[in-house]
TrEMBL record:
Signal peptide start and end residues: none
TM segment ranges: none
Molecular function, one GO term: iron-sulfur cluster binding
Cross-referenced Pfam families: Glyco_trans_1_4
UniProt protein name: Uncharacterized protein
InterPro entries: Tungsten_al_ferr_oxy-like_C
Source organism per UniProt: marine sediment metagenome
Length: 221
């Protein structure tokens, strides 16, 4: 099968240049359709809290021909949520060629530049998401759920698009709109990049910690 010839060297660092040579990797039924930088993508542990199952159920219905869903994650269980890896893998299979599950990657941030869109369909709550920060730095268009930890950090309409937690209908509507009109929403990624560049530069973060540790509260403890 041609797909058996498609391999990626671990020594390749400029993945964007590799994927620009799409026709050189063998003929697949979606090779005649231009990819939108192989997006969207989602990254996270395969637990109910991370919401990959929600995204896949939506993707299974829409199966947009000009995009490929790419999932990066592991089946590691945490203290609260058990793994739903089996359900996720089954849903990926049901999506056919429109979804790919890569498994665990030690350097997922190196893949973000391939994608136009990052989807964070988290449930319940989320802390300061490294995935979102890395996606902002990679100039991804961020689509995320409205949960504590994301509300108040992201600015919907300025640097992201948010949808109600666990709302498949709302997520489906946003995905269709963004994927079919990527350039219309490119300003969200640009704004997110400028924001993370200004607010999360190493020097700024160091200064912030310095102010905290020099505050009267810390001096008195």
């Amino acid at each position: 099968e041609p797909d058996d010839l498609i391999k990626m060297s671990e020594r390749v660092y400029n993945f964007q240049r590799v994927f620009n040579l799409r026709q050189g990797f063998g003929k697949r039924k979606h090779d005649d359709i231009p990819y939108r930088a192989m997006g969207p993508v989602t990254i996270g542990r395969l637990t109910s809290r991370k919401g990959a199952d929600l995204l896949l159920r939506v993707w299974k219905r829409i199966k947009l021909k000009n995009a490929l869903l790419f999932l990066i994650g592991t089946s590691q269980e945490d203290m609260v949520q058990k793994s739903n890896a089996d359900e996720v893998r089954e849903l990926v299979n049901e999506c056919g060629d429109s979804a790919v599950y890569s498994g665990r990657r030690d350097d997922p941030w190196n893949y973000l530049g391939l994608f136009d869109i990052m989807v964070c369909p988290y449930r319940v709550r989320e802390g300061m998401s490294n995935t979102i920060l890395q996606s902002m730095a990679a100039k991804n268009i961020i689509i995320a759920s409205e949960i504590p930890g994301i509300i108040g950090f992201l600015k919907p309409g300025d640097d992201s698009m948010l949808f109600p937690e666990d709302d498949e209908v709302a997520l489906e509507k946003i995905l269709k709109e963004v994927i079919n009109n990527v350039e219309k929403y490119r300003h969200l990624a640009d704004n997110a990049f400028e924001r993370v560049k200004s607010e999360f530069q190493l020097e700024n973060v160091i200064n912030c910690y310095h102010q905290i540790f020099c505050s009267p509260f810390c001096k008195g403890t």
